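This part of the workshop introduces the protein records we will be handling. A record pairs a protein's sequence with a compact description of its fold. As an example, a complete record with its sequence and its structure tokens follows.

_____
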Amino acid sequence: MAGGGRTRTRPNVLVTGTPGTGKTTTCSLLADATGLRHVNVGELVKTKGLHDGWDDEFECHIINEDLVCDEMEDMMEGGGNIVDYHGCDFFPERWFDHVVVLQTDNSILHDRLTSRGYMGAKLTSNIECEIFQVLLEEAKSSYPEDIVVALQSDSVEDISRNVTILTEWANIWRPRSS
């Protein structure tokens, strides 16, 4: 049951994973297939100024987790969202009905990230994050294990299969009884 006593009629899905694993592509295709709203948290942080400045070493905004959660609360309570972000441990557990961790082979991920201009500490940190399955462990420790699933995301075929699997799941989803 969602906060405030209302039951969602549409699910909320979190799609997480190391940068370069295909989150945004997967979420966009899934939103098209299901009619759920794609919420790209990185874009939300930029457009709404939900950050505490810029990190020069990692070349990204320093996200203000409290501001992000405040901004998203009403939307999440209503349901029908696919949240796209490379972290997951600060979102309230009650928000999500399904947590998907996308994973990519390290050599493929390395090529994707270098083509995006990642280098130095930013590249190394993200590759290590994938090697050590940091986000899968974070998801499993932050949410009920029965709602967390890891999906391989190495190719266009993988992404297509993942969208099909997640669309089927969204179509049969029913709210948990309290």
